[in-house]
Write a structure and sequence with these properties.
298 residues, Protein-Tyrosine Phosphatase, Chain A, five-stranded mixed sheet, 44% helix, globular
């Protein structure tokens, strides 16, 4: 189905507002980002971007997140046969894909299609149908900070599905979005919080995406000019391609605040704590948090 030029412009504005790749809006950021040397977490893949292990972190009660079980990643549409062989050796059971239908249309996960034994979890949604309900001038994107201030509600369904897979022990599991940093960063931050990893460590893991993302791999060989005629995500990517020509934008505000802290602040203001959010919004209560700890800590 073709989209009119007016409709495409509205869709593009919506996509910018919803922060599908919100780092592209952060043009005014100048504060330096902390460089963390943690390359041992990265899974070396020819066509991968930001595919890494969440294991190895120490919790506040001196336990350790199990390695080789919980992973996070950017889009996996450019994986090579050698990459797929490498991943298959890890016996993955589940992929939780947080991306929209617009993104999936351009960048399908072929690795999963080649492996029907892998559970593929995706909640179908269109980025253009989402609503931040945030005060703004007509036609203006709400910006990155508003996106992170609403992410807990915008992706509540997806987070609930993610935690259900974890509770059902459908692992090894990898959660992903397009860049593996915003939606995936939020999901990973929630999981590490539930497991008892200190906030400082969680933020450091979140910031690693700027080191390990590969924007050129994420764009792949898609003809964005042709796709942009009917796909608003493609039009947005085409518009912002040059902004990441020198590498990913940092995941911090101009004053150096990590974006993920905006999400944490919203949760703590609205729900009182991450634990309360997990319970009230995701139906993950104290008993189930203890189950997660039993499964994924050693």
């Amino acid at each position: 189905m073709k989209i009119s030029s007016t409709g495409l412009s509205l869709a593009l504005s919506a996509l910018l507002s919803f922060g599908v790749v919100p780092y592209l809006q952060a043009e005014t950021q100048t504060a330096p980002q902390t460089k963390i040397d943690d390359s041992s977490r990265l899974i070396p893949l020819e066509g991968g971007s930001n595919f890494r292990d969440l294991g190895g972190y120490t919790t506040t009660d001196h336990k350790t997140v199990r390695s080789g079980i919980l992973f996070r990643s950017g889009t996996m549409s450019s994986l090579t046969p050698a990459d797929e062989k490498t991943l298959n050796q890890r016996n993955f059971k589940t992929v939780v894909d947080l991306r929209s239908q617009e993104e999936l249309e351009l960048y399908p996960n072929r690795w999963v299609s080649h492996n029907p034994s892998i559970r593929y979890i995706n909640h179908p949604y269109s980025m253009t149908s989402m609503n931040l309900n945030s005060p703004q001038k007509a036609g203006q994107p709400v910006g990155i900070e508003a996106f992170y201030g609403h992410i807990a509600e915008l992706y509540q369904t997806q987070m609930k599905m993610y935690f259900q897979e974890l509770l059902n022990h459908n692992t090894p599991l990898v959660v992903n979005c397009s860049a593996g940093q915003d939606r995936t960063g939020f999901a990973s931050a929630l999981l590490l919080s539930a497991l008892g990893v200190p906030r400082e460590t969680i933020v450091q893991d979140y910031l690693l995406s700027t080191q390990y993302r590969r924007p050129a791999v994420e764009r792949g060989n898609v003809d964005l000019e042709a796709a942009a005629k009917t796909n608003a995500f493609a039009k947005m990517m085409l518009h912002y391609n040059k902004k990441e020509s020198k590498g990913p934008m940092p995941l911090i505000t101009a004053d150096g605040t990590p974006f993920i802290n905006i999400a944490f602040a919203h949760i703590e203001q609205k729900y009182g704590s991450v634990e309360n959010y997990l319970d009230q919004a995701l139906a993950v209560d104290a008993t189930e948090i203890n189950k997660l700890k039993a499964l994924y800590l050693q």
